[in-house]
């Protein structure tokens, strides 16, 4: 009897893993080809109707994932809070920042945003274009895809820097034909204690932010967006791996969304060329990061209090 009791959680995990893997794979092969087929038509003619149809198909794929979260991961407890001054709409245009701890962060964002915000895009590496279905879908759906060059490459060919900026500008401007949410992980990489120590980060729960990407997005889109939104994700039991999440080993996730007011001086300046503006912008982001760090600590303390 005791041996059966020990095996049950393992059997449940195996069953859950097989279920999740089968459904997501099947859903991807069902939804992926139509997106790619419609995307090919854009080589000949741009069409708002095609874009809208592809977003609808993508949201259907996300809906399957969310169904799995709600019905196959039944013990997952969500705590979602949205500040009163943040009025979200499926027809809105948003820039979003978020802390980054795990590959699960994107799944959390999609789970939260599916019925509250337009489809979330985020900056991706150009190399992802070679991943079957996923890379091509990113391109078709308007994810800004960046060809990142090293400092050495830019020093040898300074035009690469200008080219990157122009490609980023075009990618962002293309989003303006429809509602969108453009996500930027300011830390640039996932948080780990090792990276935190290596950076000598001044924040307790965050890595140092990289302000350049946000500055670029605000320079291009700042006067055309409805809000700059800051999402904070907390895993009270520790940041999980992607497999941990889908196997049901994550019990609690807390999410907070707040609206960030954009000072008038932020818009209309050149982050790359204006050293004074760049320093002022970095200080502004630093202050936002201090507030975010304090918010994460409060969210963690709330969960600690429930365990007492």
From TrEMBL:
UniProt entry tagged with the keyword Acyltransferase: yes
The entry's keywords: Acyltransferase, Transferase
Keyword hit for Transferase: yes
Protein name: Acyltransferase
UniProt GO molecular function: acyltransferase activity
Species name: Acinetobacter albensis
InterPro entries xrefs: Plipid/glycerol_acylTrfase
Domain Phospholipid/glycerol acyltransferase, residue spans: 94-236
NCBIfam families: PRK14014.1
Annotated CDD domains: LPLAT_LCLAT1-like
Listed EC numbers: 2.3.-.-
């Amino acid at each position: 009897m005791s041996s059966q009791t020990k095996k049950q959680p393992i059997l449940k995990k195996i069953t859950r893993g097989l279920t999740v893997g089968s459904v997501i794979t099947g859903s991807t092969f069902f939804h992926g080809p139509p997106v790619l087929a419609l995307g090919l038509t854009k080589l000949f003619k741009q069409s708002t109707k095609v874009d809208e149809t592809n977003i609808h198909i993508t949201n259907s794929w996300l809906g399957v994932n969310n169904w799995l979260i709600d019905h196959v991961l039944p013990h997952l407890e969500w705590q979602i809070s949205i500040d009163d001054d943040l009025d979200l709409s499926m027809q809105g245009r948003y820039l979003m920042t978020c802390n980054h701890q795990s590959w699960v962060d994107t799944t959390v964002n999609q789970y939260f945003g599916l019925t509250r915000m337009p489809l979330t895009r985020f900056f991706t590496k150009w190399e992802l274009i070679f991943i079957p279905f996923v890379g091509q879908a990113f391109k078709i759906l308007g994810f800004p895809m960046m060809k990142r060059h090293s400092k050495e490459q830019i020093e040898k060919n300074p035009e690469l820097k200008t080219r990157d900026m122009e490609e980023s500008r075009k990618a962002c401007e293309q989003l303006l034909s429809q509602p969108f949410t453009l996500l930027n992980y300011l830390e640039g990489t996932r948080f780990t204690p090792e990276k935190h120590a290596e950076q000598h980060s001044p924040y307790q729960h965050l890595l140092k932010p990289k302000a350049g990407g946000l500055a670029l997005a605000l320079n291009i889109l700042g006067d055309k967006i409805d809000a700059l939104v800051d999402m904070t994700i907390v895993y009270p039991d520790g940041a999980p791996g992607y497999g941990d999440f889908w196997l049901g080993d994550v019990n609690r996730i807390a999410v907070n969304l707040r609206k960030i007011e954009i000072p008038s001086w932020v818009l209309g300046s050149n982050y790359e060329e204006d050293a004074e503006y760049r320093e002022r912008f970095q200080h502004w982001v630093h202050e936002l990061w201090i507030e975010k760090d304090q918010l994460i600590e409060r969210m963690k303390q709330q969960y600690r209090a429930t365990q007492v």
